[in-house]
Amino acid sequence: MSNPIFQIEKPGLLTTLQDEGRHGYQQYGIVASGAMDPYALKIANFLVGNKGGEAALEVTVMGPELKVLSDSVIAICGANLSPRLNGHSVSMWKSFAVKEGDLLEFGQPIEGARAYISVAGGYDVPVVMGSKSTYLKAGMGGFEGRSLEKGDVLSKVGNASGVKGRAIRPDETPTYEREMDIRVVPGPHLDAFSEEALRTFLSSTYEVTPQSDRMGYRLKGPKLEHRSSADIVSEAIPLGGIQVPANGQPILLMADRQTTGGYTRIATVISSDIPYLAQAMPGCKLRFREVTVEEAQEVYREKDRFLRTLERVAVH
Amino acid sequence: MKVSYAPLGDTGMQVVFGTEISKETNQMIRRMTDHLKTHPIEGVTEWVPAYTTLTLYYNPSVITYRALQDSLQRIFQNVQEQREAASASLVYILPTYYGGEDLSFVAEKNGLTEEEVVRIHSSEDYLIYMMGFVPGFPYLGGMSDQIATPRRDDPRPEIAPGSVGIAGSQTGVYPLTSPGGWQLIGRTPVKLYDPDQEEPILLESGHYIRFEPVSKDEYDRIEQEIERGEYTVQTEKKEEVMP
After folding, report:
1. Which of residues 165-184 of A touch B (CB under 8 A)?
2. CATH superfamily of A179-304
3. Could you report the predicted ipTM of this complex, rounded to two decimals?
4. H or E element, residue B158
5. Domain map of chain B by residue range?
6. pLDDT tens per residue, chain B (243 residues)?
7. How far is CA B120 from CA A178, B123, B148, B236, in A?
8. Which of A19, A143, A154, B151 is in the most buried spot, having the most CB atoms within 10 Å?
9. Is B50's CB within 8 Å of A240's CB?
């Protein structure tokens, strides 16, 4: 059963449906996509009683204006983009009830870049290759393969009542600074770089430039020199991979990256720090810190245990 | 053959099979993925074969980097010792109307007639080394140097799906509308990427493509059959000689 939940009055800068991404098809060239900030996505879902991997609306910097079409429970997590319900500000990281006729809108971006609006039951769009995520470049998945426009009507699955007033502990609520320490595992193409390159990379500050989107962030900072060529034989490129073309300026690969690429990579951001990168605005300053794969996996497992505990509590 | 392993952050691993782009390397990678299909490793979520590498993505709560490397090392040794052939490769036959806008340029550049370009281009079975770039795009190997032609100085903003082109010593087919600098020599009505199908991607790395010249009338007829859902892409089993 499907029920209309939102009518789009104003679409905002870029509003798309995203879940955990389209996995299992990268070997055919199908881009993974998915929420830029998977942590905020999961928490937003848990708060309304959904499974963590359900799709939510990903809202970018300037949020949309949504007319509520049926009584529901929703939650907003991630960036603080000044959400308001009928003119009154609403709490982030906490589920709340909305009624038919309410108006949900956003104001000034205060902190972070991307917010996630979940709805109890989840949004009703077709599952394409195992995912509800929107991949804009190929017009695939999500709501008709595109970002939302004025007049669109989104529906939710079923008529789950959801749980209002559910919040997570404040110390589990991330803060998004304008300067961030980001952990990386170096490699795999260190041989292609000069001896100083990795040292330069790990000891300098790199700025997120305006040439940044869901596909990747172009960074600006001290040049990373190659030993000879910046090109490699094309191979798979991972989320968080840091690719360095011949100009020596790094590019961070994000959710909508292509499946394969032909540039040398100096390091990979660990998955636990991807949610922070997702919230970096142009002008943010990044410092990269080296960790071993074992350390990174310990961090992963700890976070995963926490999320699985939350899911057990949240989903019945 | 020697392999090496490298972490890609905490959820990826790259297996490197030398630096040489060759059919042998491709066969070895294919034998590894054949094994992964029939004997899945718990925690491995997906893998992406490429020219000289195989990349695996996995869940570190289920399997650690070290344990995954040990598993892959054992699989590699088994596969190498048994010298079993990879699963049979197919040749996908793509009917192609050779009427591309750059056909005459490719001919002129190489001192050939257009007919000769078509004959050379359509007489080879091209190995799909990897898929990527855009959904359903095959990276092909094995084109004759006789028809090699540099990319266009001035890339086209929009190339139609099914366009067959040449870029340097590579040939390829565009699965969906995209910009590009390839020299276009023809077009196939067959859809390499069709989001309306349950299996939206036609091709898979390790198989082959053959371009079969057809007339414009034939092209139109096949295109209509495809629209009506009445066309099946022809395949042939590829006879492989073990290296």
Report:
1. 184
2. Cyclophilin-like (2.40.100.10)
3. 0.96
4. strand B156-159
5. 3-82, 90-237
6. 889 999 999 999 999 998 888 888 998 999 999 999 999 999 999 999 999 999 999 999 999 999 999 999 999 998 888 766 677 899 999 999 999 999 999 999 999 999 999 999 999 999 999 998 889 999 998 899 999 999 888 888 889 999 999 998 889 999 988 888 899 999 999 999 987 788 889 999 999 999 999 999 999 999 999 999 999 999 999 876 554
7. 58, 5, 11, 20
8. A19
9. no
